[in-house]
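sry for the spam today, last one i promise. struct tokens for design, 1298 residues
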């Protein structure tokens, strides 16, 4: 049962947050339609009430259409449906910070969590049923439902083409994270609620339905067009472990275990036989290891296309990806497939048969299943492979916790949610996918640590006891608490450990389970020659992110001349010092066989070591008995000895990583000897090859001889008669095969003193392509050829050409000879793949990677078109993901908003859920920008789009929603982005390219009307809506700090530049909030200081406009505006004594003022537009001013276009604001148009130009009226007018002044 703060666990066994228990459930799907992607059926739950006053029954159901609910087939029930997770932040969309979203997300999930007595579907028990419920008699609850075009939980795969659905391989299957069965049938979607099941599925006669349990019978209809599969699950199982797959599957009964059946899509049977041939060995291994039989009577593996994960285990079956299938000729995929299939079988024991009690106990079945899986890997692939991956997993877990935050395995014991995480970990629906991955690895590491503490045999006895109790419980009929042994919790596991071993592991659980973190050590030593002791110093860093203070035992291993000695010490403080007495005496330059920890004795050259010290090397915690990250300081010769003579692969790997910092001839020799040593583990030799390339680059000025590893490769793989020509491929020796793939990739990273790939290396790689011969090899060489393509990509360095320097388009003539040869090889292999596709198209994958590297380094035009074509739906998934990864990188490098929008379209609309997830993962790993970046991509529209995706568009795929939360955090952080808006404040702005428009503008800006709401006197919501532009919108950052969404922007003023336009948002003062009419003021001017006086009363503005109309100054009335009257032209005033307030100079430019779906048009330079919107709502308001920026002179280095006589139009029918009489020596004055919520007004026609001379005759009268009007305003505004006059002085220095 899931617990959280304020929720108590049941004190007694009978207490339960759900007032009932399930004993049995029937799921019957009577029809499945692939064309409409729909299904219809009913579910019947056998309920045993626990309370006599049961009046409401809450169950889980999501996206299902409920038709009818009955009790015992006769009593129809009323029901209500409520799912807060459909829209996480309901009613308050002004919040845009992750902390608010996380809190709302957790609340929404908890409100439908059946472990807390909740659910989406609330059923009211009819009055007629109260009698037998009061007697606690069981009853049946039936629910009729249908599902059409599900957004999650079910995947319909219907390939296009001719023929029937079966011919095309159409199939469907269920998927989802934990607790996702509610997405396709009504149920109690909890691991803690187990029951028996009867499953019935009616499908077409050409289809096969595969589900959990034993197949009882298959019944055909009378017309033989349909058939019904009847399954029964006799072992109590929870709803999340129920699954379904339907398709034209080919069926293979395992020849070694008839209880095991495999299903695959048509034409994949040969690969299915090869891939599953080993599976009986995994069953035998687990049964022998656990001393217990497989808990079910059958097991089924179904391989499907577009799988949600590579492997998803369910009770008695697993759904796997078709991509795991392989033939006998494939080497690289075999170990991956075997490990994943073995993992699915291990989950049948712990995860399906014995499930977790609650999400806080998920670490137990996950950790035990992984423990069993890696035990099989150890047996099948060897101890070195096992220890290497344990070392890698430990590094990944420590890296995750030091980067993202603590991983707490049992969150129920956590007093408060970890403050360093930006998501909740108390439910699977709120937990990030990469957190779950690290969580699973940490659970396995902790289980392995427990193995080292209590002993392997005792731990296996504990597992056997748990399985025995569960088997006995599964055989019993339903009784309250009869099946509790089928559920595993931390408390029950602790009890079993104590019972079997007699040891108290509570301190261990407190250290590693109920709290997160790892131990971070930094060690160093000094040898005391007089005392013959090693003075060891270990320092912990508990203040580092993700680190915890460790208190307990720690093993330190010292390799001396006389052997290996283990020393156990107790760690109590952050700084621990120990004196370790050496058992050996120093030998000065004497060669003698040195005994190692394995018992063997080897000859060592001791000339390079300290003659006074008998210490060869020191290791901290060699068995990895604690979760730690250890760095140790010791001389380079000790790391070299460790690499040469230590037999533990983890020590050798650590030595290689340390030797990368010591670029010396001795390091070079040690790495070379390791690569050539056939007795060394192949993964260590691969790591040594990569490290040698780094060391060679550091030693480039002193390197002697041929480039690194060429001689080694020719010696190992060259022909006997001609070493320069590689032998025919023979991959019989798998260690040599992996090394043959790795050495060219490592060599390609070599660089000369000019930081270019050496010519000899490049020619060597091309020869590998030329002489590659796989005709006599029984294994495929596609992975080898793919590695050679990757090696070519590693040789690419930035282009230095005339075209690259000049910024012109890259052409084929600009390519160097080497790049032409490289491009020819890549093109040839890419085209060859279309004719002869290889396994999983691995060659095409690396060809696309190479093309992207060429683009990034300037050798090819930076064009995403190729990758878009390969990323489209219908391409093979690996190719799609590679192309999408290139597009993600293109978006980051070029800052292309169109590509980012296209990627988000993939996230929203792509049919493959795995691809949608991977795109978001790529964006998180390689984001287009980060919070601290001042990127033009950080627009308000992006914030709004991602928020909507998180909030309400991914409610049926919790993994996708959590991925979006992760990306949102990477891009914008936890706090609210600088520019957001609410949905209740519609404000639109559209900026489109109008370079060819008659007005000559580079942008066309639509007018906008706003009604804001808030508590700050202005609405960020309306601003955000205003900048929610379409794909053609392009923001030109001038300066970059003024971009929307920038964390540097204050909340008092937000500047967004659109070309040469500036949008300024300012708070409306308190005295203006009382106004109840909407008004739009649009000022057209050239200076940046001519803002409207915000302190003036709106009623004063009304009186001024009425006075101007009475004077007959040509003001268009509101009625005239509504009738679409033309605006008469006015002359230009001589001066501007009002500080840029040109409200008397009317209609110098034909201007059309329209509603939010139209535009502002005019001729001349960019205009200053100020829009003031006041709402009748007693909340916040805003003012938006669009002002043309002052254009600096050419001497200032600014390349933006200047405005003046050179921009005058040549068309006599076009009116320019600079087109005035030559005798006017004053600078040009802009016009002002004021209207009250003005509807569209028609622009002046060219014929009105004839009246220009007549209108200019009234110039003196207009000037007189202007001075009179300004005098009245001076008296009203007082000191404010003086401030405006002072600002005018700076305006006269504007470059717009003639």
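last one done:
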């Amino acid at each position: 049962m899931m617990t959280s703060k304020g929720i108590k666990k049941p004190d007694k066994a009978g207490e339960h947050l759900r007032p009932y228990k399930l004993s049995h459930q029937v799921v019957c799907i009577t029809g499945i339609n692939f064309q409409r992607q729909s299904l219809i059926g009913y579910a019947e739950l056998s309920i045993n009430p626990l309370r006599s006053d049961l009046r409401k029954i809450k169950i889980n159901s999501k996206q299902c259409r409920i038709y009818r609910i009955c009790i015992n087939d006769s009593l129809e029930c009323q029901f209500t449906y409520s799912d807060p997770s459909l829209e996480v932040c309901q009613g308050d969309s002004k919040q845009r910070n992750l902390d608010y979203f996380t809190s709302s997300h957790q609340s929404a999930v908890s409100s439908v969590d059946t472990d807390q007595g909740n659910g989406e579907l609330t059923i009211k028990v009819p009055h007629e049923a109260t009698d037998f419920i009061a007697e606690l008699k069981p009853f049946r609850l039936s629910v009729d439902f249908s599902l059409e075009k599900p957004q999650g939980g079910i995947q319909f795969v219907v390939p296009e083409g001719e023929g029937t659905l079966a011919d095309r391989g159409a199939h469907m299957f269920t998927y989802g994270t934990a607790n996702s069965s509610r997405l396709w049938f009504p149920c109690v979607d909890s691991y803690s609620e187990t029951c028996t099941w009867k499953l019935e599925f009616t499908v077409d006669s050409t289809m096969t339905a595969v589900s959990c349990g034993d197949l009882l019978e298959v019944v055909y209809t009378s017309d033989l067009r349909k058939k019904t599969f009847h399954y029964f699950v006799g072992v109590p199982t929870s709803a999340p472990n129920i699954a379904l797959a339907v398709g034209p599957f080919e069926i293979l009964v395992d020849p070694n275990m008839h209880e095991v059946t495999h299903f695959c899509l048509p034409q994949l049977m040969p690969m299915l036989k090869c891939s599953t041939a080993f599976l009986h060995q995994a069953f035998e291994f687990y049964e022998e290891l656990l001393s217990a039989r497989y808990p079910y009577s059958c097991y089924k593996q179904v391989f499907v296309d577009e799988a949600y994960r590579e492997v998803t285990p369910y009770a008695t079956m697993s759904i796997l990806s078709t991509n795991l299938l392989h033939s006998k000729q494939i080497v690289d995929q075999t170990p991956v497939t075997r490990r994943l299939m073995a993992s699915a079988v291990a989950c049948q024991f712990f995860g399906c048969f014995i499930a977790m009690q609650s999400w806080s106990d998920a670490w137990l079945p996950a950790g035990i299943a992984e423990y069993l899986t890696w035990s099989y890997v150890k047996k099948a692939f060897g101890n070195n492979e096992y220890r290497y991956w344990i070392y890698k997993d430990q590094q990944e877990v420590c890296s995750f916790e030091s980067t993202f935050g603590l991983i707490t395995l049992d969150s129920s014991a956590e007093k408060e949610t970890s403050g360093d995480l930006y998501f909740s970990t108390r439910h699977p629906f709120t937990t990030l996918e990469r957190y779950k991955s690290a969580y699973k690895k940490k659970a396995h590491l902790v289980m392995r640590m427990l193995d080292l503490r209590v002993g392997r045999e005792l731990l296996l006895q504990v597992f056997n006891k748990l399985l025995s109790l569960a088997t006995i419980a599964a055989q019993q009929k339903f009784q309250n608490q009869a099946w509790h042994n089928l559920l595993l919790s931390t408390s029950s596991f602790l009890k079993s450990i104590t019972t079997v071993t007699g040891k108290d592991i509570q301190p261990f659980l407190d250290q590693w389970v109920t709290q997160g973190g790892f131990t971070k050590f930094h060690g160093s030593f000094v040898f005391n020659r007089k005392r013959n002791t090693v003075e060891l110093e270990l320092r912990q860093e508990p203040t580092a992110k993700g680190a915890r203070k460790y208190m307990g035992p720690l093993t330190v291993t010292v390799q001396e001349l006389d052997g290996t000695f283990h020393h156990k010490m107790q760690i109590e403080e952050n700084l621990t010092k120990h004196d370790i007495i050496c058992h050996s005496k120093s030998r000065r330059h004497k060669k003698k066989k040195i005994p190692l920890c394995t018992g063997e004795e080897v000859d060592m050259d001791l000339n390079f070591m300290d003659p006074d010290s008998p210490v060869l090397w020191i290791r901290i915690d060699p068995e990895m008995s604690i979760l730690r990250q250890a760095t140790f300081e010791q001389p380079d010769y000790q790391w070299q000895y460790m690499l040469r003579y230590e037999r533990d692969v983890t020590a050798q790997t650590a030595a290689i990583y340390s030797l990368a910092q010591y670029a010396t001839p001795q390091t070079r020799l040690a790495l070379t000897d390791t690569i050539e040593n056939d007795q060394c583990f192949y993964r260590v030799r691969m790591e040594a090859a990569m490290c040698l390339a780094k060391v060679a680059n550091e030693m480039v000025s002193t390197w002697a001889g041929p480039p690194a590893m060429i001689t080694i490769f020719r010696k190992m793989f060259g022909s006997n008669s001609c070493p320069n020509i590689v032998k025919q491929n023979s991959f019989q020796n798998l260690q040599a095969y992996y090394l043959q793939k790795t050495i060219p990739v490592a060599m390609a990273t070599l660089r000369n003193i000019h930081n270019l790939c050496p010519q000899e290396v490049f020619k060597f790689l091309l020869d590998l392509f030329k002489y590659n011969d796989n005709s006599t090899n029984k294994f495929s060489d596609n992975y080898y050829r793919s590695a050679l393509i990757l090696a070519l990509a590693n040789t690419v360095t930035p282009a230095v050409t005339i075209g690259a320097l000049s910024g012109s388009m890259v052409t084929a003539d600009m390519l160097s000879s080497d790049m032409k040869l490289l491009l020819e090889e890549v093109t040839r292999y890419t085209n060859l793949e279309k004719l002869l596709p290889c396994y999983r198209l691995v060659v095409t994958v690396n060809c696309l990677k190479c093309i992207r590297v060429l683009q990034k380094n300037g050798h090819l035009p930076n064009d995403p078109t190729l990758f878009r074509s390969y990323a489209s739906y219908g391409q093979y998934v690996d190719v799609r993901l590679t192309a999408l990864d290139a597009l993600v990188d293109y978006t980051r490098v070029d800052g292309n908003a169109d590509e980012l929008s296209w990627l988000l379209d993939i996230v929203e609309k792509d049919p493959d859920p795995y691809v949608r997830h991977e795109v978001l993962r790529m964006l998180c790993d390689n984001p287009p920008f980060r919070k601290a970046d001042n990127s033009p991509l950080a627009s308000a529209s992006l914030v709004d789009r991602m928020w909507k995706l998180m909030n309400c568009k991914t409610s049926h795929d919790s993994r996708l929603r959590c991925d979006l939360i992760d990306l949102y955090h990477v891009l914008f952080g936890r706090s609210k982005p600088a520019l957001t808006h609410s949905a209740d404040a519609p404000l639109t702005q559209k900026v489109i390219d109008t370079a060819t428009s008659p007005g000559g503008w580079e942008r066309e800006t639509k007018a906008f009307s706003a009604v804001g709401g808030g508590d700050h006197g202005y609405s960020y919501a309306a601003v955000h809506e205003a900048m929610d532009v379409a794909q053609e919108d392009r923001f030109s950052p001038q300066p970059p700090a003024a971009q929307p969404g920038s964390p540097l922007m204050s909340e008092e003023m937000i500047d967004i530049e659109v070309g040469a336009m500036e949008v300024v948002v300012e708070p409306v003062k308190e005295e203006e909030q009382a106004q109840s009419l909407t008004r739009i003021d649009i000022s057209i001017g050239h200076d940046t200081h001519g803002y409207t006086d915000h302190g003036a009363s709106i009623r004063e503005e009304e009186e001024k406009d009425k006075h101007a109309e009475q004077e007959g100054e040509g003001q268009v009335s509101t009625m005239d505006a509504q009738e679409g009257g033309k605006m008469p032209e006015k002359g230009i005033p001589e001066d501007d004594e009002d500080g840029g307030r040109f409200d008397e100079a009317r209609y110098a430019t034909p201007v059309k003022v329209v509603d939010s779906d139209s535009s502002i048009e005019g001729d001349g330079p960019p205009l200053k537009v100020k829009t003031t919107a006041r709402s009748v709502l007693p909340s916040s308001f805003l003012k938006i001013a669009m002002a043309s920026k002052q254009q600096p002179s050419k001497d200032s280095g600014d390349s933006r276009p200047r405005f003046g006589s050179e921009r005058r139009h040549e068309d006599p029918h076009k009116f320019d604001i600079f087109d005035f009489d030559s005798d006017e020596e004053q600078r040009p004055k802009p016009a002002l148009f004021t209207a009250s919520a003005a509807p569209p007004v028609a622009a002046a026609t060219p014929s009105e130009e004839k009246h220009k001379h007549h209108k200019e005759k009234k110039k003196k009268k207009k000037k007189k009226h202007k001075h009179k009007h300004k005098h009245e305003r001076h008296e009203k505004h007082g000191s404010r007018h003086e401030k405006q006059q002072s600002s005018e002085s700076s305006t006269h220095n504007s470059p717009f002044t003639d």
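The two ends are 79 Å apart (CA to CA). ok im logging off now
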